[in-house]
Specification:
By secondary structure, this protein is of the alpha/beta class. It folds into two domains: 160 residues, Aspartate Aminotransferase, domain 1; 242 residues, 3-Layer(aba) Sandwich (Aspartate Aminotransferase, domain 2), CATH 3.40.640. Helix content is 41%, strand content 14%. It is built from 13 helices and 13 strands. The strands form three sheets. The chain has an eight-stranded mixed β-sheet with strand order 2-9-8-7-6-3-4-5, with helices on both faces. The radius of gyration is 23 Å and the shape is globular. Bound molecules: 4'-deoxy-4'-aminopyridoxal-5'-phosphate. This is Aminotransferase. GO terms for molecular function: transaminase activity. Keywords: Aminotransferase, Transferase. Pfam families: Asp_aminotransf.
Length: 429
Amino acid sequence: MTAYKDLTKEELLDLKNGLTKEFEEVKGKGLKLDMSRGKPSKAQLDLSMGMMDVLNSGTPLIGEDGTDCRNYGVLDGIKEAKQLMADMMEVSVDHVIVCGNASLNIMYDAVSRAMTHGILGSTPWAKLDKVKFLCPVPGYDRHFAITEHFGIEMINIPMTPQGPDMDMVEQYVNHDESVKGIWCVPKYSNPQGITYSEETVQRFAGLTPAAGDFRIFWDNAYGIHDLYEEEQDCLLEILAECEKQGHPDMVYKFSSTSKITFAGSGISAIAASEKNLKEIRKSMSIQTIGHDKVNQLRHVRFFKDIDGMKAHMKKHADIMRPKFETVVQVLEEELGGLAIGSWIVPKGGYFISFDALEGCAKAIVAKAKEAGLVMTGAGATFPYGKDPKDSNIRIAPSFPTPEELMTAAKVFVLSVKLVSIDKLLEQAG
Ligand code: PMP
């Protein structure tokens, strides 16, 4: 394989001719493919249909401690659901509150509460001139949307293979009191699939923030979403690490079963220190009388315990693994050695992150769309939707069927090749 940059202008034009014909053929097929969002596929959702059977009209909806799950009450979640989520989040049960159908709104609420009421007696963020959040990039667009919504200034922090650039994180957090938080997806990050190293987690726990109300927003959405049984990334548990280093209140952990059972109809939880939880419960008790305990019961009866949940995740992995491998194989076969893009091969999570030549991402996504393939909007992986290099594209392989995925991956690489050639021709003048 010759790198495209080493081809002459004539060779590039020749290549472009052939690829354009190929592209027009694909376009003529009127494809409708979607690799835009990290949605579980139908086959994955079907895995949890048993959850609809564990509760039927004859089942008493009574929790272990006698709670009638059909009635009001129990703000924290039923005992057995707290245990399940605590085990999933690797914390003790007194550090967990089980919440509603999904985790994003707990994160929104955490930011919203800090804006209006401050944290543990601090000045409400809305009353401050400036509030800033650190945003490891590329990252999750919906995190950035929350902070943007509240007018919080977002600062890009580059990701490394070990997690966010911790020198930069320490510099900001320890010296700038307007820095109030950081968004983290610590295991199989969205979109790169990077797991923070032990040293990174220890450095997080060792931060000495200039702002007393600085919080790490630790969104462990993919904590048990491994693709391989033999090769799993390992993440140090941050709450215990923060306690060990004398900063027990510095982190809020979030998680949900959205990508374990039903997306948007799962159960979610927040884990934090007792002091933080007390404050959260106070405002939560104004917001709601209690979350959906019937759904909590259904989840616990379906999985029984964390071992049941982990066994269930192996079934997800069996569906996801071939999809990831298909995309990676097409990328390697079609783009390997051409030096027009790079990607990370993740061992879990929901995404593959692709970095195109600078200034090409938007055009690639548009090109793919011409042929009927919808990708996540270029720029979405950065705060304000602005990728300074216009290079990162998030690939979400979960939703299409394996056959669709092969076609989608081929349309994608074809689009990458065509746009890269145009870029190189433009540079050649
Ligand atoms: N966090 C991350 C990192 C995600 O990728 C997603 C879903 N794409 C969510 C949170 C959303 O989770 P939930 O459905 O629990 O709101």
